[in-house]
Amino acid sequence: MSRKHLSHVVAGALAAVLIATSAPAAEKKYDPGATDTQIKIGNIAPYSGPASAYGISGRTAAAYFRMVNDEGGINGRKIEFVSYDDGFSPPKAVEQVRKLVESDEVLFIYQSVGTPSNAAIQKFLNARKVPQLFVASNATRWGNPERFPWTIGWQPNFQSEGRAYAKYILKNYPSSKIAVLWQNDDGGKDQLKGLRDGLGSRASMIVADASFELSEPTIDAHLARLKSSGADIFVAWSTPKASAQAIRKLAELDWKPTFFLGSISSSVASVLRPAGLENAKGIISNAYLKDPADPTWRNDPEIRSWNAFMDKYLPDGDKADRVTVYGYAVAATLVEILKRCNDDLTRENVMRQATTIKDLTVPMLLPGIKINTSPTDYFPVEQMQLIRFDGQRWQPLDELVDAEVGSSNTN
Fold first, then answer.
1. Which of 84, 106, 263, 289 has the most other CB atoms within 10 Å of its CB?
2. What does each C-alpha distance from 326 to 45, 121, 310, 377, 384 come to in angstroms?
3. How far apart are the C-alpha atoms of 99 and 282, rounded to whole Å?
4. φ, ψ of residue 409 in degrees (nearest 5)
5. Largest CA distance in the chain
6. For 136, phi and psi rounded to 5 degrees?
7. Helix-helix angle 186-199:115-127, to 10 degrees
């Protein structure tokens, strides 16, 4: 190669380096709550009040984000998790969320707990175009992108659960009579609708139902009336406190129907154990997450990682409480979404990433269950497995059940 030609090659290479080093980096985009070093996330949970058992979900999220921060954060940014107590009170929820958005200036609201509280804040957040991400409620109203494009749920919804129970009842108890106890809110109405829709032309199998208010100190009178209906199947959709009362009361009444219990109250620690494990034997519920107490998963790498997380970051948490498993899996999903946002930490991009998920698996989901969303499908998890309590732990009953609910069935 001639000196002249070599000099041209070197000059060209130097020019390329200069152009590359002088080119501006990809533009960083931030909305309130995001900076080069931080992502601020808002949350409300019932740390007090009648649904305080769900407060562990907020504590689990806080613990998970401490772990993420210790491991370097997300794309170099640390998470600041701001969580307030709403006491499971809708007016308090509105007050606390306004504070999070207007004063704390969080990027989005994450895992706010309960159907009534989330319903109370939904219009405000959508009007302000603040993401209401992975709502901690099974109501179908979180999957209505036409009306509420800034709100998305996470776990299987109540209507899907009702349909799954209906399918099992029609297959195994086709001549039975059904009594239903449901909480008088959007979630309870969803569950009852799912059961009726799943029974279809056999919906007359439901011979009695009773709604109750969260403020009621006891549900004993409702249960006595439902027993008098002659039903041999009992379906209960209620908070942990009311569910524990129902399990104990059925034993006192010596009423022994086939008992279906909503998944939100299937925790051994906060529901079945307080109600008496012997009273809970035989109850049917559903799961989509691994149960750390199940010997099947004893040597599972995800269970080992979860145990290590609990030991280090939530040492006073109860490993038998399935809400901690749930909180762990949801937080893992959020971290994946935020990683995909890269340096575009705008509220619009957060929602874009949350609503374009394809076959995502996160730790603690049962094998075969994948997370999928689209701009028209705001139901991330729609598969589940029916389970029965054997007096010590939950055991699987059937294969995975797909129970998709279209947006036309949302509120």
1. 106
2. 14, 22, 13, 21, 14
3. 45
4. -95, 0
5. 103
6. -85, 65
7. 110
Identify the DSSP state of 77.
B
DSSP label at 47?
A: S
- Residue among 245, 296, 302, 300 nearest 274 (CA): 245
Contact 181, 246 (CB under 8 A): yes
162 and 378 in contact (C-beta within 8 Å)?
A: no
The CB-side HSE value for 107 (13 A sphere, CA atoms) comes to 25
Quickly list H helices, 99-147: 115-127
pLDDT per residue as tens digits for the range 254-290? 999 999 999 888 888 889 999 999 999 999 999 999 9
* Run of H or E including 94: helix 90-98
Bridge partners (DSSP) of residue 80 are: 40
Does pTM top 0.85 for this prediction?
no
Q: Which two tokens stand for residue 75?
A: 């794309």
Q: At what angle do helices 55-70 and 301-313 cross, to 10 degrees?
A: 100
Q: Spell out the domains of the chain, with CATH numbers in brackets.
A: 27-156+292-380 (3.40.50.2300), 158-287 (3.40.50.2300)
Burial degree of 27 (CB within 10 A; 0-12, 13-18, 19+): exposed
Distance between CA atoms of 164 and 105, rounded to whole angstroms?
A: 40
Name which of 366, 367, 379, 380 is nearest 410 in CA terms. 379
**Residue 20 Cα distances to 13, 17, 23, 35, angstroms:** 11, 5, 5, 25
The span from the CA of 312 to the CA of 349, in Å, is 33
Residue 396's H or E segment, with its range, is: strand 394-396
